[in-house]
UniProtKB/TrEMBL annotation:
This is Small ribosomal subunit protein uS13. HAMAP family: Ribosomal_uS13. PROSITE patterns: RIBOSOMAL_S13_1, RIBOSOMAL_S13_2. Located at the top of the head of the 30S subunit, it contacts several helices of the 16S rRNA. In the 70S ribosome it contacts the 23S rRNA (bridge B1a) and protein L5 of the 50S subunit (bridge B1b), connecting the 2 subunits; these bridges are implicated in subunit movement. Contacts the tRNAs in the A and P-sites. InterPro entries: Rbsml_uS13_C (IPR027437), Ribosomal_uS13 (IPR001892), Ribosomal_uS13-like_H2TH (IPR010979), Ribosomal_uS13_bac-type (IPR019980), Ribosomal_uS13_CS (IPR018269). Pfam families: Ribosomal_S13. Part of the 30S ribosomal subunit. Forms a loose heterodimer with protein S19. Forms two bridges to the 50S subunit in the 70S ribosome. GO terms for biological process: translation. GO terms for molecular function: rRNA binding; structural constituent of ribosome; tRNA binding. PANTHER family: 30S RIBOSOMAL PROTEIN S13/40S RIBOSOMAL PROTEIN S18 (PTHR10871), SMALL RIBOSOMAL SUBUNIT PROTEIN US13M (PTHR10871:SF1). It comes from Bradymonas sediminis. The gene is rpsM.
Length: 122
């Protein structure tokens, strides 16, 4: 089993697809990594040699920010915005959409499920 950046890659998937299981690696970056290492992208993870796994691991550590470091960096950026009391920081603190989306309708993923209105008794 290939373990890269603290993530066990799925064995039966193609290498370019399996690399996307690492936080911070998407389709484009996965294809770029495969091209830089010179490994065939259609290779299954279970068919990788130790040398190829080491190549990928070294490339990720040297050139890209992924997994824990990336999560820490993003959390630090959000904390900085909150400490500055800027508009985006206030939106993060209140749990509302940050990038200008409407909140009159929608925004359910940020605001949580609807709560029922309590009616007055007559």
């Amino acid at each position: 089993m290939a373990r890269i950046a603290g993530v066990d890659l799925p064995r039966r998937k193609r290498l370019d697809v399996a690399l996307t299981y690492i936080y911070g690696v998407g389709d484009t970056l996965a294809k770029e990594i495969v091209a830089k290492t010179g490994i065939e992208d259609s290779t299954k993870v279970q068919d990788l040699t130790e040398e190829e796994v080491r190549l990928i691991r070294n490339l990720l550590e040297a050139e890209y920010t992924v997994e824990g470091d990336l999560r820490r960096e993003i959390q630090g950026n959000i904390k900085r915005l909150k400490d500055l009391n800027c508009y985006r920081g206030i939106r993060h603190r209140k749990g509302l959409p940050v990038r200008g989306q409407r909140t009159r309708t929608n925004a359910r993923s940020r605001r949580g499920p609807r709560r029922a209105m309590v009616r007055k008794r007559k």
